[in-house]
Amino acid sequence: MVRKRVLSGVQPTGALHLGNWLGAIRNWVELQKNHETFVCVVDLHALTVPNDPKILSENTISTAALYIACGMNPKECSIFVQSQISAHSELCWLLNCVTPLNWMERMIQFKEKSIKQGDNVSIGLLDYPVLMSADILLYDADLVPVGEDQKQHLELARDIAQNRINSRFGTKKNPILKVPQSLILKEGAKIMSLTEGNSKMSKSDPNENSRITLLDSPDLIAKKIKRAKTDAEVGLEFDNPNRPEANNLLTLYSILSGLGREVVAKECATMGWGEFKPLLAEATIAALTPIQSRYNGLMNERDELNNILKIGRDQAEEVADATLKRLQNAMGLLSRS
Ligand code: AQP
User: Fold this and answer.
1) pLDDT of 65-96, one tens digit each?
2) How far is CA 186 from CA 35, 159, 240, 261, in A?
3) Cβ neighbours of residue 262 closer than 8 Å, sequence gap 6 or more
4) Helix crossing, 53-69 with 302-330: angle to 10°?
5) Which of the residues 33, 111, 151, 203 is marked catalytic?
6) Does 158 sit in the ligand 1 pocket, CB within 6 Å?
7) Is any ligand 1 atom within 6 A of the Cβ of residue 13?
8) Is 266 annotated in the active site?
9) Catalytic residue flag (residue 203)
10) Ligand 1 nearest atom to the CA of residue 20, by list position
């Protein structure tokens, strides 16, 4: 039986946090068992925000190591670095030429991030979703597991594939690009900031206390949770729109402890914050400790890590180049041979 194909990635814009893990990577680990899975470190995307070149390359390798430490198995999936496959940039250009500018201006992430960048907003930031479409469409992905925040970008990839490429350059019988589906698992789909329950946890939030990174020490985790925003009520509950912090911290506890929503809802229904926070800290530290020890082992074996990325790149490049060629031909670009 042909396995469905999955593609996903995280940008190496900083230390990965609980949102990246619970909203994305954790789901890949399950998917790799029954799907042909490609995961990349999307370093070209990281260039859309200001960054230090030395830190970017270090973050790139560290992100790849975290994928593996979180459970991605290089024997079951392909792990690679986006910029090492030139087809990503090349397909992005072809898609740029058929994507209306006003589709891009509607993108929520662009609106939010461009406010932060002021006068220095780059064309790259505006173009981010087209590059993401190229990432996905190159691999004929059936499924793209993402958090809620990326849903709009996924819709764009579908629109471009269907309405700008297949309907113009392909036929119903012979579509050029596969139209992917998003896969958003409800639990953990949107982990919120520890300091503001209505904003998502994000690598680029200037307040480091807003997120727990996968590499935070136990002391730092406990400190961040102790400082996390709460409210004046006693007892924690899910899904009360007036209590976003309670919903977020209880969600984290239910996933990280492995107890599930029903059990923790009962356990914490009458609990005060002072009793709850140490429990959450303990569950978080216990969940992250094995990831951190695998990560440290991998980072001490750089040759092995580089080799995994080389194998992943070779596997991915074969698929990516074939898709790019198909579209180049369909759009009338002269083939090399
Ligand atoms: N808070 C979150 N909750 C659930 N899922 C999340 N993801 C990110 N934040 C959360 C998911 O992680 C994957 C990779 O994200 P990304 O780093 O490529 O881009 P992002 O969504 O922009 O993540 P950040 O942390 O907010 O990065 P910065 O601050 O650099 O922009 C995606 O599947 C995303 O849904």
Assistant:
1) 999 999 999 999 999 999 999 999 999 999 99
2) 20, 24, 16, 12
3) none
4) 100
5) 203
6) no
7) yes
8) no
9) yes
10) 12
